Amino acid sequence: AQTVTQSQPEMSVQEAETVTLSCTYDTSESDYYLFWYKQPPSRQMILVIRQEAYKQQNATENRFSVNFQKAAKSFSLKISDSQLGDAAMYFCAYRSRWGFGNEKLTFGTGTRLTIIP
Amino acid sequence: DAGVTQSPTHLIKTRGQQVTLRCSPISGHKSVSWYQQVLGQGPQFIFQYYEKEERGRGNFPDRFSARQFPNYSSELNVNALLLGDSALYLCASSFWGTGGDSYEQYFGPGTRLTVT
Fold first, then answer.
1. Helix or strand or coil: residue B75?
2. Interface membership of B45 toward A (CB under 8 Å)
3. Which CATH class name applies to B5-97+105-115?
4. Cβ distance of B90 and A91 shorter than 8 Å
5. How many domains, in total, are found in chain A?
6. How far is CA A94 from the centre of its chain?
7. Which of residues 47-66 of B touch A (CB under 8 A)?
8. Which of A115, B18, B37, B38: CA 20 to 30 A from B111?
9. Residue B8 to residues B11, B23, B89, B97, B109, Cα–Cα distance (Å)
10. Best residue in A36, A37, A43, A111 for a mutation probing chain B (most B CBs within 10 Å)
11. Distance from CA of B70 to the nearest CA of A (A)
12. Which range of residues forms the domain containing residue A63?
């Protein structure tokens, strides 16, 4: 079974600064997806960024980028130019590519990000 | 377009009772998944349905069941409620391409269930 670990329960960053959230995972599979989801106080889970394991290039979405280290099973999220609206719980998630239509997401325990004005 | 909708927003039940939660996917989405999020934890996968067939089941007891209707909406039923069932229940929908894969699951706002 796959597991996802987020070792930082809480992080804080000054507005406009850069912060990195850590995530490690364990799997015996070679083909999978990794995600970062954001959950603000409104509880709506929002996709931040997605990485396909077969792609060596790290995914980037505007101010959000990842550092995907497949051999180390590490998947960190970097948020540049932090904004007040970035304050939320951030979850790392894993999804296998095996099995037709398998959409099960395995989540970590989350990191609460606080932005300091 | 409307996003994933869930009802009710919040409900309170007593131990031993039964509850039904409802989810309407985004128009055109045929896959619906359910997750349980206990306070302070990440969501846990409960079920996935596609075209009214169960595609996946998480490690939950038989007290949990679900179904998907012809219009792709879904219900999650929980029988014999326990205090430990208190959680936020999230529904997610997705669109599958011809390769049997989806890019993203879109989540609803959740239903907050409190069992007393």
1. strand
2. yes
3. mainly beta
4. no
5. 1
6. 9
7. 48, 50, 55-56, 58
8. A115
9. 7, 9, 11, 31, 10
10. A43
11. 19
12. 3-116
What is the Cα–Cα distance from B48 to B44, expressed in whole angstroms? Answer: 12
Cβ–Cβ under 8 Å, residues A25 and A34? yes
pLDDT in tens, A32-68: 999 999 999 888 899 999 999 998 899 999 999 999 9
**Mean per-residue pLDDT for B13-41?**
96
Q: Chain A: nearest CA to B41, how far in angstroms?
A: 5
Could you tell me the two tokens for A109?
């325990």
**pLDDT tens digit string along A12-24?**
999 999 999 999 9
Q: Do A4 and B96 touch (CB under 8 A)?
A: no
Chain A residues within 8 A (CB-CB) of chain B? 4, 37, 42-47, 50, 91, 93, 97, 100-110
Evaluate whether B95 touches B32 at the Cβ level (below 8 Å).
no
- C-alpha span between A68 and A5 (Å, rounded): 15
Nearest CA to B104 out of A61, A65, A108, A37 is that of A37
* Cα(B50)–Cα(B52) distance, integer angstroms: 5
The domain ranges of chain B are 5-97+105-115
Confidence band (pLDDT; 50, 70, 90) for B1? Answer: low
Q: How far apart are CA A51 and CA B17, in angstroms?
A: 42
Q: Write down the residue that tokens 């394991």 correspond to.
A: A53
